[in-house]
Automatic annotation (TrEMBL):
It comes from Tuber melanosporum (strain Mel28). This is (Perigord truffle) hypothetical protein. It comes from the Eukaryota. Residues 86-105 are annotated as: Disordered. InterPro entries: Actin, ATPase_NBD, Heat_shock_70_CS. SUPFAM superfamilies: Actin-like ATPase domain.
């Protein structure tokens, strides 16, 4: 609220704006994609945030994960340090010391290598690159400088650990991640699962992945593919696999009845094209993504149409409230 208050105050004091409209970022990302509803996954610097937008309104509270650009940068630094240490140990005939693991690599060099060489592997093994392709990356900030050489596939390791691993921490129970440490596909799946049925039917084909972290080559397609797999394996039920195991003796009869009704409804409503897709769920569509020009472009379009925002702050009321010691914003912001 402090940063927002300073920005709005600068607009009112220095630019003499009569009023400022505040708009929700997920809604503007949906507008930038040319749709009215969708699931918006914003992979930012500190965290990844997901919101469901239905008919230009945010539905329910958003979900967050700390797997953002900062975590990705940290995994890249650790990856480069390990490769540097391994290379030094090989040159010393295996006599490298543990201090090699703490070789400092400057932030600017990590970010430059990340920008130039980062990518994300596809979920399909047939489309993965061959290990014969080798890449050389020079490191100039460590002492002594060194040129690292390794297979091209290995450059996808930081993305794999950051966005798709079960957990990013050294946990003794990685199958139980923290609530703020879900992988990106799991985050999208849980957001869709918690939606009402009508909302889910409208947004499941409009998954929008935006933010600075989304520019990693191959990340968007990999997330969509992983979500399809989760939906196919789990469906939309909240009950986990462990609960099914405890009722193993009584489940077959009830499960058979449910499957028969589900299959009948699918055959009556689903199209042949939809049945071929792995993410089809009862004729209500399949998992798919759409591209967005981003929140700034969406907000520019909305402002050009002179649509009222979520909150409108008037100059005189804002300055009077700030002078009286208040924030100048409505209580429900």
């Amino acid at each position: 609220m402090g940063v927002l208050s300073k920005v709005v105050k600068s607009l009112f004091v220095h630019f003499q704006m009569p009023a400022v409209m505040l708009m929700q970022e997920p809604v503007m990302a949906v507008v930038g994609a040319g749709v009215r509803s969708g699931v918006v996954l914003d992979v930012g610097w500190n965290e990844a945030v997901i919101n469901v937008v239905y008919e230009m309104r945010v539905v329910g509270p958003g979900k967050r994960s700390r797997r953002g650009g900062r975590t990705y940068r940290d995994f890249w630094r650790k990856f480069l340090q390990e490769e540097y240490s391994s290379s030094s140990s090989d040159e010393d005939n295996g006599n490298g010391t543990s201090e090699d693991n703490e070789i400092p690599v400057a932030d600017w060099e990590v970010e430059e290598i990340l920008t130039r060489a980062s990518w994300c592997q596809s979920s399909s093994p047939s489309s993965r690159h061959q290990d014969e392709i080798t890449i050389t990356i020079p490191l100039t900030t460590p002492t002594p400088p060194k040129t690292l050489t390794f297979p091209f596939n290995k450059l996808a390791t930081p993305a794999e650990k950051t966005f798709f691993a079960t957990t990013t921490t050294d946990s003794p129970t990685p199958e139980y991640p923290d609530d703020d440490d879900y992988a990106l596909p799991e985050l999208v799946y849980r957001a869709l699962r918690d939606c009402p049925i009508d909302v889910r039917a409208a947004v499941m084909q409009r998954i929008i992945i935006t933010g600075g972290g989304s520019y990693v080559p191959g990340l968007k397609k990999r997330v969509i593919d992983e979500v399809r797999v989760l939906v196919k394996c789990r469906g939309w039920e909240r009950v986990g696999r462990r609960a099914v195991k405890t009722g193993k003796g009584k489940m077959p009869a009830g499960k058979e009845g449910v499957e028969e009704g589900y299959q009948w409804r699918r055959e009556a409503t689903a199209s042949p094209e939809g049945q071929k897709g792995g993410g089809d769920t009862g004729g209500r569509g399949r998992i798919a993504g759409v591209e967005s020009f981003g929140s700034w472009v969406g907000a520019s379009l909305v402002a050009g149409m002179k649509v009222r925002g979520t909150v409108e702050v008037e100059r005189e009321k804002f300055l009077a409230a700030v002078a009286a010691g208040g924030t100048g914003f409505p209580l429900d912001i």
